[in-house]
Fold this protein.
Amino acid sequence: MTGPVLAIDLKSPVPAYRQIVDQLRRFCVEGALEPGEALPSVRRLAVDLGVHHNTVAEAYRALALEGWIEVAHGRPTVVLERAATAPKRERRLELERSFERRLRDFIAEMRAQGLPAPRIAGRLRTVAEEMEG
Amino acid sequence: MTGPVLAIDLKSPVPAYRQIVDQLRRFCVEGALEPGEALPSVRRLAVDLGVHHNTVAEAYRALALEGWIEVAHGRPTVVLERAATAPKRERRLELERSFERRLRDFIAEMRAQGLPAPRIAGRLRTVAEEMEG
Amino acid sequence: MTGPVLAIDLKSPVPAYRQIVDQLRRFCVEGALEPGEALPSVRRLAVDLGVHHNTVAEAYRALALEGWIEVAHGRPTVVLERAATAPKRERRLELERSFERRLRDFIAEMRAQGLPAPRIAGRLRTVAEEMEG
Amino acid sequence: MTGPVLAIDLKSPVPAYRQIVDQLRRFCVEGALEPGEALPSVRRLAVDLGVHHNTVAEAYRALALEGWIEVAHGRPTVVLERAATAPKRERRLELERSFERRLRDFIAEMRAQGLPAPRIAGRLRTVAEEMEG
DNA sequence: GTGGTCTAGACCACG
DNA sequence: GTGGTCTAGACCACA
C-alpha cells in the first residue's frame, strides 16, 4: 500500500479507529486498494499514524467483519475480492431514505459552521460527476 | 411546530439525542423552523418519539449551546434569530477539506452497503440543484 | 420603597425570582429597607421589572419564609423587625467553612472569565472596609 | 490528583455536578491542578464522592466545554494548558458590575444566616491579601 | 404546566 | 480499563 495515504485527526470527535475504517473502506470501494494487495501490519500502521496498536487492530477487525479484508495470524492482511452485494428492493429503498436524510443533516451541520452553500453545492456536483464519469 | 416531522431510528448506531440535534439543526438551517417559533416541550416530544425525556432534554441543551434555541425554566423553548457566521479564510479551507473527506467516506459507506453509485450520484445532483436554485 | 432600586437581568442564569430575593434580602441586611416599611405590591413590582406576577409572588413568599417580610391578603407587604440570629458555635463554624469555599469558588469563576485578580482583590477590600467602617 | 480534595454537600441547594465543576475550576485557576495532570476516572470519583457516575461525567463534560480539561474515550481525563483570556474593556466592566452585585448578594445571604459581619470582613481581607501577596 | 437534577443500573464504544 | 448513551422514575425549581 504505497498509493493511498491515511490521515487521521486525533482532535476530531470521530474516534480514531472509525477514521481508519472509513478511509480504508473508501479506498476499497473507490479502487485505490485492489484485491490481493497487502495492508501494512497493525503495529507498523499504528506507529505511522501515532495511535495505539489496539486501535489499528480493532479497525482491521471491523473491516474483516464487513468482508473487505482478511486478517490471519502470522500472515499479512490482504484485501479481498468483493462481490457487489445487491440488496433487496425494500432494503435499498430504506438505504436511500437513510442516505438522503443523513446527507441533508450533514450538509446542514457544515452550513451551520459557516461553509457557504455554493461551495457545498459545487463539491456535491464534482463528486457526482466523478462517480458517473 | 406542526410542519417539520422528526423521525429517529433507535436501531441506528447514531445516538438518539444526536439524531434529534442533527434534524432540528437542519430544520433551523433550512428555514423549516423559524425564529420565535416554539418547540414542543421536552416531555411531549419524548413521548412522540418514544424516548426518555432526558434524551430530548440533552438534545435541546446541545442546540441551546450551539445558539439555535433558547431553553428556560417554566417557559416554552423557542428558536432563536441566528446571525450568519462567516469563518476566517483558514478555517473555511479546513472546513472544506473536512467536508470533502467526510462526504467521500460517507458515500463509500453507503456504497459498501449496496446503494448503487448512480443513485447516489443522482441524489447528490438533486441536492446540489436545490441549494443553488 | 423609593430608595433602593431593583434590577434584574433576564438573561442571567440566575433565575428571576432568585435575583429578587437576593436583592431584597440584601436591602434588609444592609438597612436600605427598614422595618415597617412597605414593599410595592406583587403586581406593581412585576410590571416594573417586566416579569410575571407569579415570579414576584414566589420571591415574596420565600422572603416571608426567611422571616424578612410579612405578606397578608389585602394589606401591603411590610418589612419585619428582625432579631439578629446568633447561631450555635458549631453551626457558625460550618457557615464559615461554607462561606470560604463558596467565596473562593466564586472568585475562581470570575477569574476564569477574565476578571483580573487585582481588581477582584481591590473590590474585596472595599467591601470589607464598608462592613467594618 | 492526590493534592486537592473535593468535598460536596448533598444537602446544598447547589446541584452536586455544579459543586464539582466549581471546585475543579478553582483548582485549575489557583494552580492546585496543573496542565497535563490526570483527573480520577469518572466512576472512581463518583464512588469517592458518593454520587452517581453520571453526575461526575456531566461535571467533566462541562469543564471540557469551558476548556479546562480534555476528556476522551478510553483515555484518562487530563488538565489542559489554558491561555489567559483578556476580555474587552466593555465586557470587563460588565463582569465587574456583575461581580460586585453577586458578591454583595452572597454576603447578605450569609449574614442573614447569622454569620457575623466582622468575620466576613476578616475573611474578605484574608483572601484579598492572598491574591495580592 | 415548563425544564433541571439525580439515582439505579443496563449496555455500548473506545483504546 | 476508560467514557458515552439510554431508560426508569423520583423529586426539585421555575413561571
